[in-house]
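Today's session is about reading a structure prediction critically. Students often jump straight to the picture, but the first step is always the sequence itself: look for stretches that repeat, for charged clusters, for runs of hydrophobic residues. Only then move on to the predicted structure, which in these notes is written as discrete structure tokens rather than atom positions. Here is the chain we will use throughout the hour.
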Amino acid sequence: MCQQCSTILCVSCFNRSHKNFVIFQNHVLENIGMKIKSSTCKIHKEKPLDYYCKSCVKPICMDCFMVGGEKSCKSHDVVSINEVNEDFLTELSEISPKIDELYRRLTKTAVDIGNILLNLQNEAAPSDITKMINDIEHQYSKMFAQIQSHKDKIIHTLMKAKSCEKESLLKARSDVENSIKKSKTFLNVITSLDANQLKEANISAILKDAKEILQLPWYLKINDEREPLKITVNDELCDKLKDYVHLEGNGNFEYKLCSTSEVEKSQIEIPAVPSTVVYPPQLVQDVRQLNKPKDKEPLKTPTLYKQAPKYRTKSGSCSSINSMNSDTSYPSSYDQYTKPIVQPVMPFPESQYPKLQEGSQELIYISHIVDPHNFFVQRACHQSRVEELLREFRNAISLPTPSAHHVTEGKVYLVHNEVDNLWMRCRIVSIDRRNHNKPKFHVFCIDFGGTEIVTIDKLRLLPPARLHTPPPFAINCALANCQPKNGAWTSEDAILIQNIIDNKQAVVHVRRIRSMSPNSVTLEVDVTTFEHGLSVAHALHFHGRAFLPDRLPYPKAIGVIEKPRIFISNNDFKLNSVEEVYITHVVSPDHFFVRMRHLQSVYEKLCEDLDQEYSANFQTGSIYLPEKGMVCVVNVERCGGGGGSGGAGRRWARAHVCELPGRGRVRVALLDTGAALLAHWTALRRIAPPYTTLRALATECHLAGVTPTNKQWNTASVALLKKFEDRVLDLHVEDHRNRNSLGVTLYDKTDEDNIVCINELMIRHKFAVTFGVFMFNKNFHKENQVNTQKSPSREQKKQTEESFKTILKRPTPSTPQKQHPTKGLEAKDKGPLRLEVKVLNYQSPSLLYVSLVQQQKAYNELYEKMQKYYTKKNDKSTQSWNVGDRCCTLCIQSKTWRRAVILEINDDKAKVFYSDFACVETVPLQSLRELTQEFMSVGGGAIMCHLYGVMPAVGEEWPSLTKEYLKELLDAYQRIFITKTGNFKGKSMPVELWVYHTIQGGALEPNVSEWRCLNKKIIEQGLGIPDKSEEISLDEESIDKRDATLSFLNDTGSVNDFLQLEPITAKISNKSFSSSANSPIQEEESNEDKPDAANTVFVSDWLPPEPLQSKEFTAMPTYIDIDGVVYLHDITQQDTLDLIRKALDVRFKNPDPKAKFTKWTVGEPCIALFYLDNRFYRGKVLEVNNETSSCLIHYVDYGNEEICSFENLRKNVALYQIPIQAHKCILDRIKPVEKKWKRQTLDYIHKSIVEKQCFVKVTGEAIGGLIPIDLKFDKLWINDHLVEFEMAEYTDGSKAVVRKFLPNIQPKHCEDVINESDSGPDYIVETDDNKSIESMKSIQLEDFAHKDWNQLMEEEENNSPTEEFVAFPVNTETEFLCNISFVKDLNKLELSIVFDEAKTLLYDKMFKELQDDCADMNALNGIFENKPCVAIFPDDGLWYRAIILAYSEMKGLIKVKYVDYGNEDVVSLADVREITEKYLELPPASVSAQIHGIVVNPDINVKDVAKEYQELFVESGPFHTKIIDYENDVPRVELRNNENQLIHDILFEKKIFLRI
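Below is the predicted structure for this chain, in token form.
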């Protein structure tokens, strides 16, 4: 250390830095050690201590001994110091060993103290006190359990008494209400009868009623047997509990250190001295804690430095690089990556840039390539210094040439590079002295990485200043995670890398730093081109030169230029529009491409420009690493394709990469023709920006309304469509819901007399069947539709008939073999395949029989053959018939032969089921005939079905209301369609019933048609509930079985399929079932084929609200949102809401400890707790915040939205069968004055109507789920009232009407009206409206004559109690300094204003005075939203200024916001006080604000956003804030740092914020 400065320094630092300063040149460096006290007198300076005073027991000097005074030792016993020093030395030698023993004892005591403290701090370690604490806890827990049990029992008794009292009063109130009705009605009848009516009336009956009314109970009394409850407290028991547990002893466990003498006095045995010094043991640390990252120093994402940063980092470790014995040295290259940061004397130039480390990214230039595992790079930030160095060595030829004998390995010189004609620094690697006269030197260029063999004339001495600085610029690198495929790298690999980089900038991502020797460092890196983001390692892998051992996530290079894109869209084709097009490429009728006719010239011009651009520059822009989805230009000629229709003669075309098959091949799709080509990578070129502005000219289409019969198109259908490639076709857009493909109808109008519809042509050639809405818009004949599953080809008629038989034949069971369709000919999934059917017999939604209309022709031919066969064959059958046999019999009703199944045999009669007509009939046994093999092989025409996904709400039987409702729907529509969905249940096919519903338009409006599913209609009407047991996903095997679209028709089974049918007595309309026989069938009440009821019901959403039963009704609004949507329910639904609330309270009364660990997703239904009344309600998740373990919940039955924690949510969705009770309505005929409703207006509407009975009038049909209404509260129509008070405007632009009272209104007229309305014997209690009308009798209406309506309203408002209150003053400053205390949500920040010192003192003074004055403040005088108040903050118990947000009258809780801090909390009503004017003088110290000009990216993870917000906003500051504008009274601000930069710019780069 420095003797003069007392600064601790090493020798090197002392010589290099400390002594460099002039003022420190005379300082002396000395070793750090114990200072021995000097032997001079402290009183008399510089006087030696030559004497020792025995009286004072201290050494003294001559002056102390001779000079008199208070401190003089002149008369004391004084001897020479030398006499006593010998005695002192003797005594010191005796004490030293004892001090050593004491030192060892102290070390042991220190270790013992540490062990005891460690045990005390470790709560898990057993100790006497810990055991006693646990024992006490156990004893008191037993006592608390007994007390709690006794308390619950007493409380239960009291609650039971309270409930009994309440129920008796409610019953009494109901009885009184009925008695009032009876008495009032009787009095009205008596007063309305005149003398003539009394003569005609039944006086005895009236008298009887009067006597009964007199006997009605009216006096309210308490039960005489009631015993009043009293509380008796056993105070003696409380006194006994005081001594329930007590401690013996004083509990004085203090430790004390004692000296040796004190230990001997205490007569404690002195322990043995430790043999050595005792050191504390090294504690075993938890590995998890060691590896746990520090919270205070989060890992920062490596940043790509495009420019040299302004700050400096410092380093100074040096090592020799010229030779091991050289005095000349400069900073080692290894020091740039691994050495710790130290502070040198002065900043070197090389320390101006950040050092590379593992995980960092850097912009570089590749200067030399040996192979992928040995190449050299230069940092882009060093390029200016490299150029400066090269300019300095430009005339290095004039420098002296070194002597050949003095050149040694490791030294640094200048060498001349012949290729680049540059002088550069080099290091001698080796020397070849075999030719003594002309030795050769192997040199390594330390700034570029290349090696050369040169002679002495190419070397020059390097100036000494450049030996040290700058350090070598070449950095040795190797590609990480990349190994040669053939075991060794070749020169072609280096050439490929050179072609990829092309002397342009690249980005390296450092994976690992490894040092092979003290003076060499190699970085294992990933290299990506900066211009195109191309990975060099992946490019080597694509070209088959390397393999990647590990599939590591490749780092995204920051700042890489965005890749080009071409817009692909079919938005130019509008629904129902007609366009002229060319077919450019055909894959199948479900996958072909068209181009608009008017774009043909654009396409030709584009092809010419591409040919001119890329033919002239054939070698530029090569793509060395094609990526799936990238846009490029492809040489069509080299691929051997013409590029589709219209592409002949074109060499280059725009394309995008679809697939990478391997071996350097790329499958591309041409964007302007749709053709797919397999090209070599050498045929691809990068697309120039001018060619990306034009969108893709080819549009993918599919033929609408047709689909192949076996899910696969055959080649003949493709050939048919290709015939129309060179013709102009009319394209009609039928379906544009699929973003990737248009559903179209194509017409060939080449011959105007014979217009050809290509869709219809596919059906006529029997390549496809038609389905869906398409058949309604086209005049197709049913006989033109396909009735086979095979594609017709040029076959003989006999083969066609055999094919026809195959579809109806019951196939024998065989092992299913998966068939792979021809690639590209697979049918597109165009939605459900709706087949037209005829309902043969309907019993219930679980049992109905249908037949396919498209098979009707085949069955008619079959019936004709049967009639001819059995009419000619008159022989009676001698066969012995049994139940279940199939036969043919003559139908008694139709007199035709029909196929049948025997159900019963009674004597000479048989009950049969007609398998083609689904009806039952009893026929003579002798009329039965044996079925031939030809007629038996064809399956029955009646298909047994049940509605898929629907089940009865209660039990297993369908109510008669549901049966009649579905029957009415089937009768109302002439054409019925089915879609097979799911798997067979027994022998019943699950189907969805569809009808095509047309809504008639107005005079100038077209008709609107749509498909309606009758299954869903039953559920929507509340006549059934979803059957989740059937909604299961089909596995691959079941999908393969359904590949044939009509395969379910082959499921005919055995004769026993029909034995479950019995006749019923009900008669069904012949209009609906004209083909039925005399006796329909009945569903058998058998459970053999019924599946087990599922224990778990998966509910994806709540049932929608039921339609309103009336256009005018009384409702209860519950909530109004920021868009003015009013949530309300019919007053008759209140009982249902009460039922839901009570059921949920019972179901979820116990807490669920696992709830807080549950995972939630947006849109999921749930049961949620409402914080104000602590009760459960049905809800739906709108947002999920895993960071705070909370969700934003929409309470579906009331409409409000609140934040709810995970522990207050329940997954077990109950009462899912009950529809949502809240209806979403909107006030009709009005709109907000501005774009959105103001907060004040919404608050006014909320206070006026919410939780109040209102009259609602529905004014139109629901639009987007919102019902337009007119709403009236008391006598005030809210819609018009808002316009009159300029809170809203009429949508038609009209103005509000000024109402005035009519003059000369006579009270007598009112009386007549009242008497007229009250004259009838209506057994009702008068409503409030009637009472209000009667009360008007005493009002002098003349007083209101000639008075203006607005004046009356103002007077009424002045006389009525108001909700006015003085608010906090508004902060008028538009620019201020602030900190961000916390983030309220993703779009709102809470700004805490930073005031100057004077204003801060005012707020501090106000806060102190507030604590003193709050005890004397009054309680709240009215509770209104946003009203100022003072409230206690629960965490610290202090008073703060606040405003009221919400209030729960049931719980007595108030939600407040503390205006000076921004946070919110729920406090008790007793903890809130009325604020005085004194504390309303200063504006709030916090402001809720939004960031101007941004919107949060909806695709970003909320957890990542919260972390970025915390780091950027909360943990930083203060910020310079400027208010730009306001949105709904919320300021939108800009936040800037001290450099006047927007602090959230970094969030734009991270794609968290998007610019508006």
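Discussion point for the tutorial: Residues 506 and 529 are 4 Å apart (CA to CA).
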